[in-house]
Amino acid sequence: MTKVEIYTTPTCPYCHAAKALLGDKGVAFEEIIVLDPALRAAMTQRAHGRRTVPQIFVGETHVGGYDDLAALERQGKLDPLLEGAA
């Protein structure tokens, strides 16, 4: 499996939902908490201007937020993304 990174804040319910979905699939991920303005700015730049959390990356692929992650799962495209970019 490829590296998964998720930018979050502690109180974000969508962040918790995204982490739960990945956890249920047994996916290890690196969580980057963006309370520091410099980390938030780095996330925004990497996420093509998106400032909301979570922002999820699978390898170099920007998945987007929780809704985007859940849509990939419903479409059966998440597992191949997780396995294919390793």
Automatic annotation (TrEMBL):
Assigned keywords, A-Z: Cytoplasm, Disulfide bond, Electron transport, Redox-active center, Transport
GO-annotated cellular components: cytoplasm
GO BP, one annotated term: cellular response to oxidative stress
A Pfam family per the record: Glutaredoxin
Residues of the Glutaredoxin domain: 4-63
MF (Gene Ontology): glutathione disulfide oxidoreductase activity
Source organism superkingdom: Bacteria
Signal peptide: none
The keyword Endoplasmic reticulum is assigned to this record: no
Keyword Aminoacyl-tRNA synthetase: no
Cross-referenced InterPro entries: GLR_AS, Glutaredoxin, Glutaredoxin_subgr, GRX_bact, Thioredoxin-like_sf
Family: Belongs to the glutaredoxin family.
Function: Has a glutathione-disulfide oxidoreductase activity in the presence of NADPH and glutathione reductase. Reduces low molecular weight disulfides and proteins.
Protein name: Glutaredoxin
Source species of the chain: Pelagibacterium lacus
